[in-house]
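User: two proteins, same treatment. go.

Assistant:
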Amino acid sequence: MKTLPNGISSPIKPNTKAHPDQKIIIAPSILAADYSKLGHEVKKIERSGADWIHFDVMDGNFVPNISFGPGILKAIRKFSKLPFDVHLMCRNPDILIKPFVEAGADNITIHVELDDKVENLLWLIKSYGISAGLALNPSTQLATIKPFLKYIKLLLIMTVNPGYGGQQFIEEMIPKIQQASQWIQQNNLDIRLEVDGGINLENVVKCVQSGANTIVSGTTLFAQRNLKSAITRLRKITEAALSQVKSHHQKTLSENEK
């Protein structure tokens, strides 16, 4: 029985279920939307065929920029039934977790760079009955997340340095995505592998081929005149890449059986 910082006793078991569903999830980042009409933007995202909506929450401390708090999430929750995927880029997420849960978050992701706070924060998130995720910055070694894999439902590999939208994708993150995917499969963990930062129609293919199955994209999608067409095109590209991966896997299995 785990006792949380807020006094809650949680009987939650470690996450050791079957291999994750490889369906591609597309999560447009609201960070790139028009802030003057967020309710409209959220409805447009849902009508355009997205799977999740991604919220980058920045506190001006953990990262230099500031975005929005739980009040914004609560105000726009009524405009969509899609899962709200909340990424807390914050120095003290413990004071934000409950407000974001109450505002309507379905997943909350914290950063492994918070060091000794991480385990208690993950248990705190899970105690509210929602999914917990863990993110790591480009400069952070992947090994730092290993002790926490059994507790999470989502692993977010940042492919830019967090804090601002519209940055260039860091190609050196591809091996990190590959290794994370291998760990998830080798340990038979039910974890979605998410990528966020500079994702476009070209580099997303490498991400999916490397094992990513949850795609956050902001500028690439919202810069298009027609969001629905942009999401449809992104889905076709990612599903084609995933199909190639599955075909290669089946071919490898067949050859090994000979």
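Protein 2:
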Amino acid sequence: MKAALRKAGQREVGGILMGENIGNNVFIVREITIHRHGTFASFIRRIEDAIGGLRAFFKETGYDYVRFNYIGEWHSHPSFEPYPSRKDDLSMLQIVKDETVGANFVALLITKLGPGGEMISTVHTYLPDGSKIPSTFKIET
């Protein structure tokens, strides 16, 4: 992800998060995709960019959708604070309320590189009832 942020520079970049449910509302991000269709102030998510990554992830994890599944989206705000915009909120609520997606929640990670090259990030969880909850995450190396 850091390499994608560096390469994108002032353009937004993003993708999807695929994870493992390890219990008690705790998820580990196991895979991310990187889609390069961003501009200075918007990241455009194209479903065709995500399908291949999702299919490969599901195959690798034995199609165990209860344990391994899509958990959300990520994108950068290189020129702004890493908090969801109104457009971000609406997009995530549209995903979580879409019955064909069938999600109980979706997470949105927004990130940017700080002055020292460190990642500065926030995560919010969106629920089908329309609520948005600030969430915690930890990067392990």
